[in-house]
Amino acid sequence: MWREQKWGYCHGSGVYLGHDPNNLFRMKSFFVDVGYKVYAFNPGKTTHKKIEDIARDLAAYIEEVTKRESVPGIYIVAHRMGGSVARHCLEECGQAGHILKLFSLGTPYAGTNIAFLALHTVAARESVPDAVFIQILAEKRRYISMIVSIRGRRDQLIKPKSSSVLDGAVNIEIDVVGHNLLKDEKIVADVILKYLILAKR
Q1: Annotated domain spans of the chain
Q2: Which segments of the chain does DSSP mark as H helices, in order?
Q3: CB atoms < 10 A from the CB of 11, how many?
Q4: Is-above-0.85 flag for pTM?
Q5: What does the pLDDT average to over 74-96?
Q6: What integer is the mean pLDDT of 26-50?
Q7: CATH of domain 6-199
Q8: What is the pLDDT of the chain when averaged over all its residues?
Q9: Which of 27, 39, 29 is nearest to 67 (CA)?
């Protein structure tokens, strides 16, 4: 393993490691246990923030981490809306050179109908299938090959299910039932670690 490599973790719900120790603890521990250093990006409350604004904050955080740790780049594991945040950061915020690979977990790249239930929030309005943000991001494909999109066999928050399939990326369906379990199951970490081993060869 590349034990000196650095990780960033971007979660989509607005609750990040450090605020709720149970939220991302399991996923973090999987990688720490095999020698990776893990950082968690915390943009604060995201209810009324645009995804592109959160992406700019993520870009600044990546700059800070790579400079402080003197590393060329980091891997990002992003859950739910965090995948859209990280993809926008990759495509539009000048971070392609610092993001070595983006692993998204249950990210509705084509939007999700579940977002219609929370239209009082900016994040939900940008996550419905016909949202302008979704349409614009779909046209950005310069770094699509750097993305691994992982989805569960059954995910109650991704409607339609095909929304997590990103053309041009590596798409993997695993035997996990439940949206939040994607960030807790070792089988997900094992898939990511497999790609890291392949990347260093």
Answers
A1: 6-199
A2: 25-32, 51-69, 81-92, 122-125, 132-138, 186-199
A3: 27
A4: yes
A5: 92
A6: 84
A7: 3.40.50.1820
A8: 84
A9: 39
